[in-house]
Protein: YIP1 family protein
Organism: Saliphagus infecundisoli
Amino acid sequence: MTTWIEEPEGGRERGPRAIARAWLEVLVRPRRFFEAGVAPGDQAPGLVFFVVVVFCAEATRYALEPGAYPDLGVAPALAAAFWLGLVVLLVAPLALHAIAAIQTLCLMVLVPDRAGISQTVQVIGYAAAPCALAGVPVPALRLLCTTWGAALLVLGLVVIHDTSRIRAALAGAIPATLLFGYGFRGFAAAGDLGIGVAL
């Protein structure tokens, strides 16, 4: 899945090394990453990146958090393959595109002159980078990862759609709530830490 098309001009490289490098770059130099690494019409690397992040988070959660997934009454390896396959190969791609559609609608209201949908998909996918560690059952770490991801989403919207931080924050509020608050369980982590969330 990481090499199905030739590398387009200005897009991301393919392969495991490229995914690892993208993960480090988006965490260390996010503005530069979004400026150089998001290309029109090149969703594939962002989608694969997001799927890998979800796999890391959910595999860690499955291994370290007892009862995270329902017991199927089969061998543990089969149960793990079923649940992780379902989440990673079906739920994650569908969720990414659904959230990108919502994000696009929000941008239509607040940012009239904006970039394309494929770039929005990439921004959301790469903004999830910190959440590769969100499966560790430590509420403070999970909250840090999801808050960081939401901040990266806003920054990515600023850079890619050439808008203000205020507009980007308003446009990204609902997608960030869905993806980081509920999807990566940031709100649950906040609740575990005794931090009230009015949503």
About this structure: The chain has eight helices and no strands. The CA atoms of residues 62 and 69 lie 7 Å apart. Residues 16-192 form one domain. The radius of gyration is 17 Å.
